[in-house]
């Protein structure tokens, strides 16, 4: 911008070019630094959370911004796992969350892909209607269903049971839709070949179609795990007793003042951190898989 | 692709050994000779059976826990029901549309609460939707720059908050925004006295006007406080979100901007490089390229993000549950939380169900707008594809 030569690269001499390059490098560094600052703001809440879990109650209250716990304390972790947490049965919450997430994820992967395949490929009476119903069910927001779900669960006499916690989550409309979209993108010829060779519907599905659907199944597994691990509203309206509390409902009750006493922020943040870690691990491990799966789908078109 | 084509022949060698293929050992030949239509029909019948077997879990679960409950709740919203008796027996206290009337027409506590929750959520929507959209777009443009090193790291950093549990991050924000917490500590560094976030019910509009000495948030003028509509005074209607609500707004913008950033990023990567190149050759600067090439190309996604935002922001519940339970002075009360607390704490299930349906109507309206927008987008894409095929 300063010299006319720099504006026009064709006439730029070697000196002007090196000035340009230098400025370019400086701009690049500045841009990256600004971005790093923004990213820091995004990650700061997590950093403070992790640090605070190692602080004592007194230090967390006195210097919430201190990035170095002094004294370094593992008391909250011991309290959560050692059974010493007054009114905070953390192992129960953890066990319930694991149970629900595992069963629900397995169920969703199995049932969603079955239904998705049928809606995408099998010809049967009522398929069109079911597809329309599925789409309309997808647009009903979960929050609206809180009272209705409670009503049906109570009517069926399964309120405050594992059945009520798990069974309604075993199938989800969005997952079916993802699988349906995927199966529609797979070339039909392969299934036709298997069928001509005498394989029945079930066998074609199980040993030909499903192995091809691996990328979509991985995506569905991750989404289902994340969804059921973080699920909150469903458990709020279907359970009541503390023995059925999950990490989300237990923590929410603890934090909103139903359990324990005082602020106890290190303890609350430790429980929140432990509730976040599994999903974080899944996210960091499978993030690349996500991108790759998406790209594979795009290339196939 | 190569693996699937090799697995094809692999499975063809199988049938000879399968027990079920014994009856159809000459199936290939029979198909060529025999009446094809009967075979077709038999296969279709089999497929029909298997089709229903495959979808039966879906029909059962979604029917039992989605369709049926909506029907039951519609019925309960016409009752005065306290959750004790069987609402489907003859003893139910049928009150017709009274529950809905209490929400909109009859003056009383229920209407005041409901209107307060609508006001709170409306201001929440008005702030969250533009903020999260602009932030997501900005982040996507920044991450998409060719100059930027370590794109993956940044993308992960911005996206990570949105995969975590809403309950866990609400806990973190509760800690950060305590009156002697980290946020106020930072504000003190720059010489500002932060409010006590979670107990401050003052409306943001009055607080800001108060800075300029235009109104005193503590003592509302009689002209605004004395008159009103639908159970709330003008002073209450026009207050804007409370200071306490702002913490929830910060939290939600922070968590959702990453999700929407990914949508913008995908769309940015879909812009043909040639188009950007030709703009550059035509002498367009960075700003001009953004305005005349990039933003028009992002319009469909922009619309999608806006409508998804409109749908999502009417459902805020988890954060309210953890951070405020509707307090202070009901300024963080939302229709979703009111529906829950009226039902489960005050045993007014009929009113709670009625609020659910009003909320459903609001959200369906937003979804309708989104569907229309999507249809427009799909239509345009099909058009483009058809043109390129020609």
UniProtKB/TrEMBL annotation, chain A:
Protein name: Carbohydrate ABC transporter permease
Family matches, as PANTHER family: ABC TRANSPORTER PERMEASE PROTEIN MG189-RELATED, ABC TRANSPORTER PERMEASE PROTEIN MG189-RELATED-RELATED
Alphabetic keyword roster: Cell membrane, Membrane, Transmembrane, Transmembrane helix, Transport
Superkingdom as given in the UniProt entry: Bacteria
InterPro entries to which the protein is assigned, alphabetical: MetI-like (IPR000515), MetI-like_sf (IPR035906)
Family listed: Belongs to the binding-protein-dependent transport system permease family.
Keyword Transmembrane: yes
Compartments in which it is found: Cell membrane
Domain ABC transmembrane type-1: 94-286
Topology in the lipid bilayer: Multi-pass membrane protein
Transmembrane segments: 27-48, 98-120, 132-156, 162-183, 204-225, 265-286
């Amino acid at each position: 911008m300063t010299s006319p030569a720099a504006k026009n690269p064709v006439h730029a001499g070697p000196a002007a070019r090196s000035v340009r390059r230098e400025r370019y490098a400086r701009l690049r560094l500045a841009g990256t630094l600004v971005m790093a600052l923004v990213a820091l703001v995004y990650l700061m809440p997590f950093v403070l959370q992790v640090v605070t879990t190692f602080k004592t109650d007194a230090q967390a209250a006195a210097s919430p911004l201190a990035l170095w716990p002094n004294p370094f304390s593992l008391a909250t972790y011991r309290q959560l796992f050692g059974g010493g947490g007054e009114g905070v049965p953390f192992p129960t919450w953890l066990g319930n969350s694991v149970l629900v997430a595992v069963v629900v994820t397995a169920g969703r992967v199995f049932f969603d892909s079955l239904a998705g395949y049928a809606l995408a490929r099998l010809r049967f009476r009522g398929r069109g209607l079911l597809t329309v119903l599925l789409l309309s069910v997808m647009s009903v927001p979960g929050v609206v269903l809180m009272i209705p779900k409670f009503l049906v669960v109570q009517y069926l006499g399964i309120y405050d049971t594992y059945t009520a916690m798990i069974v309604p989550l075993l199938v989800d409309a969005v997952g079916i839709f993802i699988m349906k979209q995927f199966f529609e993108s797979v070339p039909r010829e392969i299934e036709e070949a298997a069928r001509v060779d005498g394989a029945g519907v079930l066998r074609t599905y199980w040993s030909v179609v499903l192995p091809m659907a691996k990328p979509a199944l991985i995506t569905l597994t991750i989404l289902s795990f994340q969804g059921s691990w973080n699920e909150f509203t469903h458990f709020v309206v279907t359970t009541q007793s503390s023995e059925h509390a999950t990490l989300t409902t237990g923590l929410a009750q603890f934090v909103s003042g139903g359990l324990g006493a005082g602020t106890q922020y290190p303890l609350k943040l430790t429980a929140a951190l432990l509730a976040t870690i599994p999903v974080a691990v899944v996210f960091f491990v499978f993030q690349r898989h996500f991108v790759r799966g998406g790209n594979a789908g795009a290339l196939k078109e | 692709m190569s693996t699937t084509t090799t697995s094809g022949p692999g499975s063809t060698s199988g049938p000879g050994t399968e027990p079920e293929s014994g009856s159809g050992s000459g199936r290939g030949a029979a198909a060529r000779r025999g009446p094809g239509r009967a075979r077709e029909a038999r296969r279709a019948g089999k497929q029909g059976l298997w089709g229903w077997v495959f979808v039966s879990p879906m029909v059962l679960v979604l029917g039992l826990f989605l369709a049926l409950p909506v029907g039951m709740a519609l019925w309960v919203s016409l009752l005065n029901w306290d959750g004790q008796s069987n609402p489907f027996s003859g003893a139910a206290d049928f009150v017709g549309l009274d529950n809905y009337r209490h929400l909109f027409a009859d003056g009383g506590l229920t209407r005041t609460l409901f209107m307060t929750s609508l006001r709170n959520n409306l201001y929440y929507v008005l702030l969250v939707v533009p903020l999260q959209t602009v932030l997501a777009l900005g982040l996507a443009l920044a991450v998409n720059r060719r100059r930027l090193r370590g794109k993956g790291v940044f993308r992960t950093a911005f996206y990570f908050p949105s995969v975590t549990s809403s309950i866990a991050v609400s806990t973190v924000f509760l800690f950060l925004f305590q009156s002697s917490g980290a946020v106020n500590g930072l504000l003190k560094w720059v010489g500002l006295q932060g409010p006590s976030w979670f107990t401050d019910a003052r409306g943001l509009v009055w607080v800001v006007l108060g800075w300029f000495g235009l109104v005193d948030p503590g003592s509302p003028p009689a002209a605004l406080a004395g008159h009103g509509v639908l159970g709330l005074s003008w002073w209450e209607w026009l207050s804007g979100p409370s200071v306490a609500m702002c913490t929830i707004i910060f939290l939600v913008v922070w968590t959702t901007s990453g999700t929407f950033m990914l949508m913008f990023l995908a769309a940015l990567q879909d812009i043909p490089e040639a188009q950007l190149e030709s703009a550059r050759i035509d002498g367009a600067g960075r700003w001009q390229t953004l305005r005349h090439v990039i933003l028009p190309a992002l319009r469909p996604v922009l619309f999608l993000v806006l409508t998804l935002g409109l749908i999502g922001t009417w459902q805020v519940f988890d954060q309210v549950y953890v951070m405020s339970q509707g307090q202070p002075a009901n300024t963080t009360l939302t229709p979703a939380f009111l529906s829950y607390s009226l039902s489960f704490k005050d045993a007014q299930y009929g009113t709670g169900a009625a609020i659910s349906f009003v909320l459903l109507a609001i959200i369906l309206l937003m979804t309708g707008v989104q569907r229309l927008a999507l249809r427009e987008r799909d239509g345009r894409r099909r058009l483009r594809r058809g043109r390129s095929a020609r």
